[in-house]
Amino acid sequence: MTPAPIAVALDAPNLDTAARWASLVTPHVSTVKVGLELYLRYGPDVIATVRGASGVRIFLDLKLHDIPNTVAGAARAVARLKPAILTVHATGGAAMIAAAVEAAPQTQIAAVTLLTSLSEADLARVGIEGPAGDAVRRLAALAVGAGAQALVCSPREVAAVRAEVGPGVTLITPGVRPAGADTQDQARVATPEAAMADGADLLVIGRPITGSPDPGAAAAGIAAALRRTALSRP
Fold this sequence. Notes:
Blueprint: E1 4-9, H1 15-25, E2 29-35, H2 36-42, H3 45-51, E3 57-64, H4 68-79, E4 85-89, H5 94-103, E5 108-112, H6 120-125, H7 132-145, E6 150-152, H8 158-165, E7 170-173, H9 192-197, E8 202-205, H10 207-210, H11 215-232
Parallel strand pairs: 1-2, 1-8, 2-3, 3-4, 4-5, 5-6, 6-7, 7-8
Helix pairs in contact: 1-3, 1-11, 4-5, 7-8
């Protein structure tokens, strides 16, 4: 059975837990996500540990944001770990995004548009006026123009971003919560089925899976629901 297009966020307190979660979910999902905390605590070794023998795709979510030369050097440094996806912030600008793409040609560079934890009020406070969707579309177009092969956007904006950038760009959506799940610190959320229906290619899901007593079963349940939804579409 083909693994579901889910990246499980391994926001674990230690490396052993991250490796255990990865081993439990990899039969059911295509990707596991290593974030800033885990990478900074354990360094490059974390990639080999969570990849294990399964060869699961690694989404290295470092959200690089610096001057182009520095981001190029950082992207080059982690490219040797062979992550499938590496994130940078779209707000770093076109030159920075292009530098990352050039420095890591075998890795899909994903530009983060706006963090899903930010509400409209939060955006206004940092000087981004108007609806979040407008800012996301502008950043998406800028990033794709600079060579980004993927974009990270909330499920609330994924349909508009798909219309903006067309079918050739991978859309990654965090802020995905199964129906009835706690939204926690995410402000712009949707269910997995809704996000996929709107055009998402890869769903980032963390605590609804890893916070479950049985992460493997939780991942399998969400994967099965996505398959049922796909089969029911005309």
